[in-house]
Write a structure and sequence with these properties.
By secondary structure, this protein is of the alpha/beta class. The protein contains eleven helices and 13 strands. The protein is globular, with a radius of gyration of 29 Å. InterPro entries: TBL, TBL_C, TBL_N.
Length: 453
């Protein structure tokens, strides 16, 4: 502004207000310069004082290798350079805040890892490597309605978990979840795999400098079960499900665990023959086979949860437990084996999301049995918490591999053949992806259970 005042002073002409022709030309040029400077100053002032209230999320191109997105979005307040108060769990969560109710908000800083910086992503969830062209699904974070939930600090988490053992027990969604956690933690310390079963479904890892052990135990029913499936998940014989016997694959190890995340879900929808008291008691979806009584999947699911929750609530068990609720899928126009697909690229709002009847019924049973356990067992009030990821997951139909569970799925496929030849995965989650936010909630609830019952 001083330069503008100086220019105005120099433009004053003594004597004749119009002066000579040469003077008039000089005056005209100075007036032009004066107004240009005013306009430029105004632009700087307005630009510096006006900030868009909503971050702009753009589709980012992929680098030539097709592996990692090139960020184009502006820096976020949650980026490492700006956010300095991140802890293992949120320090800003108010008493009794419902961290499971909220919305997905733009997060231009993106995930804390990529499929290049983490080598523990299963092929079917490695969406970027498999050729998924859009990356908007990476640029969101979960924001509870009434409180803040920063990403937890992996360094502090590992320090807290020194000499501890954390186990995930369940189906392939549990494996999906533990891979997300490992990818985050491996940005601090690389993990060592020290065990896997024959099918690579159950694994054990260790973070050596912290002596922190992490397990995933494949137990899709949490109960004793005999399953008969091929590599594509197609059953060639009915599942034999023992509703009064827990799966020893996890119960025999349970004494070793300090923290446990346990869950059931979609496997209970499969055709199953039920066994109780050493006899066949009924079935689910067996269509009158051998005159068996159709008891349904809700019967078997409730039986399983009751048995599981009673076991983990026993006073002799030391482990802190989180029970994770069911995960909704987002198949549209069919199911996984009938041409169903999920091609959305953006989150939806609560008013748009509608769960399938099966998911609603299963979650109702989960909440009923969980709260029943809290009421009946004094010990459980200290060591069991709820990880209710159902609602937040419902809002992310964009976060699944879809056709990109396989590398370059549309190579050589005609447009009119896509929905018939390409099998979509609308249940599991891309890594990185929305499931990464489960870890923020998981750590907050595990360390501050009293706030979230």
């Amino acid at each position: 502004m001083d330069s503008l005042r100086l220019l105005s002073k120099n433009m004053k002409i003594e004597g004749n207000p119009f002066g000579s022709s040469h003077q008039r030309n000089q005056i005209f040029l100075k007036f032009v310069a004066f107004f240009l400077l005013i306009g430029l100053a105004y632009r700087f002032i307005v630009t510096d004082s006006t900030v868009s209230p909503v971050a702009q999320v753009q589709t980012s191109p992929l680098d030539p290798s097709g592996l990692t997105p090139i960020a184009q979005a502006p820096a976020s307040l949650d980026s490492p350079g700006n956010f300095t108060t991140t802890t293992i769990a949120s320090q800003n969560v108010t008493s009794k805040c419902d961290i499971f109710t909220g919305n997905w908000v733009p997060n231009p800083s993106g995930p804390v890892y990529t499929n290049v910086t983490c080598r523990h992503i299963q092929d079917h969830q490695n969406c970027l490597r498999n050729g998924r062209p859009d990356v908007n699904y990476l640029l969101w974070r979960w924001q509870p309605r009434d409180c803040d939930l920063p990403r937890f600090n992996p360094e502090q988490f590992l320090d807290k978990m020194r000499n501890k053992w954390w186990a995930f027990i369940g189906d392939s969604i549990s494996r999906n979840h533990v891979q997300s956690l490992i990818c985050i933690l491996s940005q601090v310390e690389e993990v060592e795999e020290i065990y896997h079963d024959k099918e690579y479904r159950s694994k054990i890892w260790r973070f050596p400098s912290h002596n922190f052990t992490l397990s995933v135990i494949w137990s899709p029913f949490l109960l004793k079960a005999e399953t008969f499936e091929n590599v594509n998940g197609v059953s060639f014989s009915d599942i034999q499900l023992h509703l009064d016997t827990l799966d020893q694959k996890w119960t025999d190890q349970y004494i070793n665990f300090d923290y446990v995340v346990i869950s059931g879900g979609k496997w209970f929808l499969k055709t199953s023959i039920f066994h109780e008291n050493n006899t066949v008691s009924g079935c689910h979806y067996c269509q009158g086979k051998n005159n068996l009584t159709e008891l349904g999947y809700l019967y078997s699911y409730r039986k399983a949860l009751r048995l599981v929750l009673d076991f983990v609530a026993e006073p002799t068990h030391k482990a802190q437990v989180l029970f994770r609720t069911t995960t909704p899928d987002h198949f549209e126009n069919g199911e996984w084996n009938t041409g169903g697909f999920c091609n959305r690229t953006m989150p939806i709002t609560g008013s748009e999301g509608e769960m399938k009847n099966e998911d609603v019924s299963m979650r109702d049973i989960e909440l009923e049995e969980f709260h029943k356990t809290l009421q009946e067992s004094s010990n459980s009030s200290k060591n069991i918490g709820l990880l209710d990821t159902t609602s937040m997951s419902l809002l992310r139909p964009d976060g699944h591999p879809g056709p990109y569970r396989y590398p370059i799925p549309f190579d050589g496929v005609q447009n009119n053949e896509v929905n018939h030849q390409i099998q979509n995965d609308c249940l599991h989650w891309c890594l990185p992806g929305p499931i990464d936010s489960w870890n923020d909630l998981m750590v907050e609830v595990m360390l501050n259970q009293e706030r979230h019952r």
